[in-house]
């Protein structure tokens, strides 16, 4: 008992230290001196002995789909018999989701042991942001675990990102769109220039089909460093994909991951194991990405002869990803009535996302919820954006109107009540923020834990120090 209590306190101290200097009021402040920050983090890695120098790196950048592509690469590398570490962000329930080895969350013991190296090194170089501390922690965890491969997802941008202090064997760039404009630039081209920073001389590079303003920027960077940039098309993916990978934007991410693996196999770095890769994709656990639930709450609220609604959770949190998500729901569920439970961080283009949702022809109702993140947009603000979009609706018609919910459970109840009389069942879509998706999963785990596998990350939240990044 004493040892367990000591570990719990030591781990909590690590968590507090990582996020001790988090600044939620000014997202771009720590990126105002990128060169200085880059040099400082490089000095930190030098103090730590360059922990990634002995493993092969797959590097992924982009606006949307980085996490899915990274997770698929991790799964396929492990299916090929490799020992793999993966670093992604943000997390849903436990910050240890960001650092995984051989498909499992890094242990609390490993976090404490790695932090014993990281903290003195940070103090020696003078300072580090939360993401810099997390990145250093991940790299040390991978070195200690003696992984052969590391799959690194950029945290923000690419050129000045902590993960760009590596020499990858292949890199991939997912779809680029408008997000983090206060840091990366106000145009898709400017953002693409930052993402293109991961393209390096002699390193095979792949990207999905891009916005017309992003594509030439990526090609220019590839030409500048003397590397061929290969564009992946949607027909280059596994024949059979699980339901959560069936939306068009997810198929594109799967195509990119598959192309990266084929590139490694063609160079003899891994074996060509198509059937194993297929199975890895089919069995991959990657929550809140077009994740479908059938809560008993919905079934109980609907008459027996009616089809209960489906609940879909997705971390879509910016205009391009919400647009892609709504398009997928519309095409896959045809004219089924739709209720959208939505919450977002106020540093996003919340107004445009609300307008996209409000303009959905099959929308029955929007439900505004507050994210648990300090930057969460208030429900009043979300509903005010609905009123601004009301020119597309008859104000006397209840269809398409928004309501506020004080909790995720209330949001589910409002959604169920809105659809209970429709024999088609309908769709309840929860999106707008990673934190909203996490809050909804936690609520479902509280009221209907049987919906989840006992090993689901949602249960890690019960014993995790409260985190907000």
From TrEMBL:
GO (cellular component) term, any one: cytoplasm
Record flagged with keyword ATP-binding: yes
Residues in Mur ligase C-terminal domain copies: 307-433
Family: Belongs to the folylpolyglutamate synthase family.
Species of origin: Prymnesium parvum
Residue stretches making up the Mur ligase central domain: 60-212
GO molecular function: ATP binding; dihydrofolate synthase activity; metal ion binding; tetrahydrofolylpolyglutamate synthase activity
Name of this protein: Tetrahydrofolate synthase
Superkingdom of source: Eukaryota
SUPFAM superfamilies associated with the record: MurD-like peptide ligases, catalytic domain (SSF53623), MurD-like peptide ligases, peptide-binding domain (SSF53244)
InterPro entries in alphabetical order: Folylpolyglutamate_synth, Mur-like_cat_sf, Mur_ligase_C, Mur_ligase_C_dom_sf, Mur_ligase_cen
Swiss-Prot/TrEMBL keywords: ATP-binding, Ligase, Magnesium, Metal-binding, Nucleotide-binding
